[in-house]
């Protein structure tokens, strides 16, 4: 095994072990931290399909994260009140249904945003994805039916067949399981024919076009897949907090998702997990020491970008091997 | 709706456009010359506003405050250019986005550290208090007219600087071929610092002026920054002319949309719902405008030469 694979395994096992140790030590709050790590890692894994594999720097993935959250919030609030939704559909408290609807909604939104944004590239792409996410953000704020600026509470966490999701440990295991599926999917995509084409498009789209593969559908597919995975994370995040608000859609969220990938290491399978773990631990430790933890987060991020491009995994496992 | 209200809102739109132009001009200049995307531009706007409010409160003079906002933001701009930004010119856009995102975190928390979380307030200078009568009988605040005038003067001055002076010639040369002008003996590092400080000063000037219209607080730069991005994407990144036209377009469409959309919709649906849908649509209107323009012209209205 390479050093990176060993590190990946250690990361995955450590994240699984932490809540059990915490529970044994009587520190239930730590379980919530580990759940946060798993969910943020899933969101960043989703973004990494577009950003890491496809080289598409989306600065608007908060839109998909937030839409996932709002799907969870809206479906459960309708299930709670019994009012029918649009087209007379009823709400749902089942996570599996919520995830499916979240993926479909984000997929459609991603298709629309991607179809317009991918006509451009470089800085234009960054700014346009940002602007579309802001559009969704302002829509959520000015549309009062689901709480507007105040957000929407989820009274009881959504259900999973055969599991009591209100117990922190159970909910962690669900999130962890979904994270593993997400990582597995992104590994499968990476090693598939589609993944090869996507990475080729990132490296040189003119060459790809010249051998008869059109870059646009490949990029769009990657963008939509990426949006769908991030939306599932959003739905879980809403369930974790039992609250969803426009702040999930804000551009700070988009920035944070990119930060997670960079802290862990770009182009790494487990980069998002390492990055999310680092981020949540920073936030917890620095936040305990000083109210100004974002100041220091800024310094750490700046140092990472300027001096440690490989992120955590790059520091431990060395440079990416191009095979 | 009366004619007077329409004129008033139109002027408000132009005034918003002028503020956006001051921000967008700096962003687009920095991108055009150095190829850098600077998210921290909104922080420089905030620095200008804080400098103006603090100095004005201390000395009692708005005008000294305005000078301070120019000086402070230009100095902050030069400082971050020399310490951080300079290392990013050769990097890809992802690195630039992240490093300047980190700068936002540092600036925002740093300001909160220095000034606390309570907003500061700035009074309109006595010279510009009061209102002017508009045709149609409405009164319009003199201060907002002064902002429009100041913006027009800056636009003219910027045009003169770039097309008529030696510095402007070098900036234009730097846009088209940076290696070549470095080879001709122009100190490109100093030129870049100057351009960055100039862009920062424009943002700080906008921040200083807007301080008398709204409260001065941490995070005030971010909404303006994002609107300024929309402006330069519409206008074509790197084009000052595009920034001017894009800014006025965004300012007017945003302001008039908020006024007109609910009224237009109320012809079709009940008033309560019209207000609701109209309000939501109006807040999305400029992004829809951007999407439409990009669908037709992916490089903006006035694409700069690549």
Q: Which helices and strands occur, and which strands form pairs?
A:
The complex is a heterodimer of chains A (323) and B (306).
Chain A: H1 3-24, H2 28-53, H3 62-81, H4 95-117, H5 122-142, E1 152-153, H6 168-191, H7 193-203, H8 205-210, H9 215-241, E2 243-244, H10 251-264, H11 271-289, H12 293-307, H13 311-317
Antiparallel strand pairs in A: 1-2
Helix pairs in contact in A: 1-2, 1-6, 2-6, 2-9, 2-10, 2-11, 3-4, 3-9, 4-9, 6-7, 7-9, 10-11, 10-13, 11-12
Chain B: H1 3-34, H2 41-59, H3 62-83, H4 93-115, E1 131-133, E2 139-141, H5 142-164, H6 166-176, H7 178-183, H8 188-210, H9 221-235, H10 240-265, H11 271-296
Antiparallel strand pairs in B: 1-2
Helix pairs in contact in B: 1-5, 1-8, 1-9, 1-10, 2-3, 2-8, 2-9, 3-8, 5-6, 9-10, 9-11, 10-11
Q: Could you explain how this protein is built, in words?
A:
The complex is a heterodimer of chains A (323) and B (306). With 323 residues, chain A is mainly α. Chain A has one domain (3-317): Orthogonal Bundle (ABC transporter involved in vitamin B12 uptake, BtuC). In chain A, 73% of the residues lie in helices and 1% in strands. Chain A has helices at 3-24, 28-53, 62-81, 95-117, 122-142, 168-191, 193-203, 205-210, 215-241, 251-264, 271-289, 293-307, 311-317; strands at 152-153, 243-244. Chain A has a two-stranded antiparallel sheet with strand order 1-2. Chain A is globular. The mean pLDDT of chain A is 88. Chain B has one domain (3-218). Chain B has eleven helices and two strands; from the N terminus they run ααααββααααααα. In chain B, α1 (3-34) crosses α9 (221-235). In chain B, strands 1-2 form a two-stranded antiparallel sheet. The mean pLDDT of chain B is 87. With 306 residues, chain B is mostly helical. Chain B starts with a helix and ends in a 10-residue tail after the last helix. Classes of the chains: A mainly alpha (323), B mainly alpha (306). The A-B interface holds A 51, 57, 59, 116, 119-120, 122-124, 126-128, 130-132, 134-135, 138-139, 141-144, 251, 255, 258-259, 262, 266, 292, 294-295, 297-299, 301-302, 305-306, 309 and B 31, 37, 84, 87, 93-95, 97-99, 101-106, 108-110, 112-113, 222, 226, 229-230, 232-233, 237, 276, 279-280, 283-284, 287-288, 290-291, 294-295, 298-300.
